[in-house]
Design goal:
alpha/beta; Rossmann fold; 2 domains; 5-stranded parallel β-sheet; 5 strands; about 10% strand; globular
Length: about 325
């Protein structure tokens, strides 16, 4: 399995994004704010840390590669480099739970960090991973920093939902769009990360993940292929009550810490969305509105079950019943 993005030396695809960062840096006119935007799990944070390491090392390699033996690589991976600061949702010291959003205090720390003189004479780099998670106060604090950026400092924002960012934040960053990975890149990454998978399993994961290696790895770890077969069964025809209960018992069961419930609903909603897109492209009116409504209802159902700790089995049975209600 891959390392965390800050310690991951492997990046496939995204040559256009790599070239844009490289040429901007060597031109001497490196923009102070970059917005790496694209679907979840495609390598946005991996590229952000790759570029951060390259800048901090003062390297000249066009593919931004720095070997794992490099002292800069090791310190970035360990979170100990004095000129790198990471912004993300943190563990709340009082509740010991992950915060639901990035708060203003974290952005204020990043702002103070950026205004210091680089400890090693080069750049100060702040990576904001999941920038769409900033609350309103945090976003406004970041906007002030973008409006008055200090010299020799750069902000690298990653986001899977750029539309959730303030328009003024988007306008003050250089957009770096990143697309889903193609099938060849997906197969290569899965070979690297989970070499024990056979070709058929890799092929199925590539199909299900739609260009997101992060999604593919999650599915591989959480029995995603077997869950996808259950989703296919449910979509194909109405599921009898006894079979619906059996599926619900399976899905609600947590095995080795893997939450199959969330994976099942993600696959179910993903297949509904794909089916709706395909029908729309083919000009088939049909039940598109009904499918969109189901997609929305299943998302709401999943959030309520997780947020309120409701009965997962009952939720799965409800979803299976609603699939063919019309």
């Amino acid at each position: 399995m891959p390392h965390e993005p800050r310690a991951n030396a492997l990046l496939r695809g995204h040559e256009g994004a790599v070239n844009a960062l490289y040429h901007a840096a060597i031109s001497g006119r490196l923009h102070h704010g970059w917005l790496l935007a694209g679907p979840p799990g495609i390598g946005k944070a991996t590229l952000a840390y790759r570029f951060a390491r390259w800048l901090l090392a003062g390297d000249e390699n066009p593919d931004l590669f720095l070997p794992e033996t490099s002292p800069v690589f090791r310190r970035v991976a360990a979170g100990t480099h004095p000129d790198l600061f990471t912004v993300e949702r943190r563990i709340n010291a009082k509740t010991e739970k992950l915060q639901s959003e990035i708060v203003i205090a974290t952005i204020q720390e990043a702002s103070a960090f950026m205004r210091l003189t680089p400890a090693e004479g080069g750049w100060r780099v702040v990576v904001i991973d999941g920038a769409e998670d900033m609350n309103t106060n945090a976003a406004n604090a970041l906007l002030k920093l973008l409006e008055e950026p200090p010299p020799r400092a750069i902000l690298l924002l990653t986001t899977s939902a750029p539309g959730r960012l303030l328009p003024t934040i988007r306008s003050r960053c250089r957009l770096l769009p990143m697309a889903p990975l193609d099938e060849t890149e997906m197969h290569a990454l899965l070979k690297d990360y989970v070499p024990e998978l056979d070709f058929a399993a890799r092929e199925r994961l590539v199909e299900l993940a739609e260009g997101s290696v992060g999604t593919a790895l999650t599915l591989a770890a959480e029995g995603g292929i077997a869950l996808a077969e259950l989703v296919d069964e449910a979509l194909a025809a109405p599921v009898p009550a006894a079979r619906a209960q059996a599926i619900a018992d399976n899905v609600a069961r947590t095995v080795d810490g893997a939450d199959k419930f969330e994976t099942f609903f993600s696959l179910l909603r993903g297949r509904l969305a794909a089916r709706t897109r395909a029908a729309a492209r083919a000009g088939q009116g049909g039940n598109l509105a009904a499918e969109v409504t189901l997609w929305q209802e299943f998302g709401k159902l999943e959030r309520e079950v997780i947020g309120l700790n409701l009965d997962k089995r009952a939720a799965v049975v409800t979803a299976l019943t609603q699939l063919h209600r019309s």
